[in-house]
Amino acid sequence: MTSSPRPATGDAAFLAAYDEVITAKWPAGTAQTDIPTPYGTTHLNSYGPKDAPPLLLLPGGGSTSTVWYAQAVELGRSHRVHAVDLVGEPGRSVAGERGTRAIRTVDDLNAWLDAVLNGLGAESTALCGHSYGGWIALQYALHAPHRVHKLVLVDPTGCFSGFRPGYLLHALPMLLRPSPARTRAFLAWETGGAALDPAWLRLREAAAGFPAARPVTGPRPSPEALRVLDVPALILLAEHSRAHDAARVAATARRLLPHAETIVLPSVSHHALPLHEPTAAELNRELAQFLDGLG
To answer: Where are the alpha helices (DSSP H) in 192-278?
Structure first.
């Protein structure tokens, strides 16, 4: 594991916007580290006592690890927070290096997270993911429940229901021909025009030109697999999410996950999480109570 940021594939505007968010929004003392894995170098932004229990944070697609800045200080009081740039997604992780493999399957994703935890020297971790990161987190908990002592899914997609057709229709132009303007328009539609942090929004728009790999997708976990998962879990859903029906997701999760608590966060949308105030403060309270509680 190295202790200084390394160059990443991407243009100067993206990297400058990334560094601006780290400098302006993340707390003093944040460490940027790189962990070599069989799938490329994984970049982490870490904060909190070095001897505290680890907490791995996985962002949604295109959001980068920087999106967790509103959680870093609060969760870093009792955990060593490690926010991860997904390999192949926008960020400072580096995919496609010589001698490395591409992440093409769920098994690859699981092996990649195994390597990240090994690089951190962590036998197990608390694991939290938002959106696509929630799907990855749930897949990993099913793969290696012994390495996940607590699981948090923040408005996860693809775990308990499919996407709403209207969400996919609005996202399609941004996916087919990415541009800052299309990213901005999509986020404004999904969040209902919520005021997102300007520095992070510039980064999110700059990610439109980032040469990202096609994300690994797959079917939702089977009901049989979910029913036997014995990892304590917290599922936090956005009441006004346009990605899916939050009430339906909550009902399905309660039915299938025996050790899960489900909470619907009011007056917030899918892409306003996890950084939009005042919901971020409520999100932090729920996360801290769950992660710091017994069990």
So the answer is: 198-206, 223-227, 246-256
**Residues counted in the chain:** 295
Q: Which amino acid is located at 103 in the chain?
A: I
Token pair for residue 54?
A: 């680890």
Give the pLDDT confidence of 39-85 residue by residue, as tens digits: 999 999 999 999 999 999 999 999 999 999 999 999 999 999 999 99
pLDDT of 10 higher than 70 = no
Handedness of CA 26, 267, 168, 244 (dihedral sign): positive
Other beta carbons within 10 Å of 143: 16
At residue 87, the 3 state secondary structure works out as: coil
Rounded Cα–Cα distance for residues 202 and 90 (Å): 13
pLDDT tens-digit readout, 191-239: 999 999 999 999 999 998 887 678 898 889 999 999 999 999 999 999 9
Q: Is the backbone peptide bond immediately before 278 cis, with ω within 30 degrees of 0?
A: yes
Q: What is the pLDDT of residues 270-294, one digit of tens each?
A: 999 999 988 999 999 999 999 998 5
The span from the CA of 258 to the CA of 271, in Å, is 28
Using DSSP's 3-state secondary structure scheme, residue 151 falls into strand
How far apart, in whole angstroms, are the C-alpha atoms of residue 188 and residue 190? 6
H/E element, 116 = helix 106-120
Whole-number Å distance between alpha carbons of 68 and 82: 10
CB atoms near residue 155 (< 10 Å): 29
Tokens 């608390």 locate to 126
Beta strand spans in the chain (E): 31-37, 40-47, 54-58, 80-84, 125-130, 148-154, 233-238, 260-265
Distance CA 211, CA 92 (A): 12
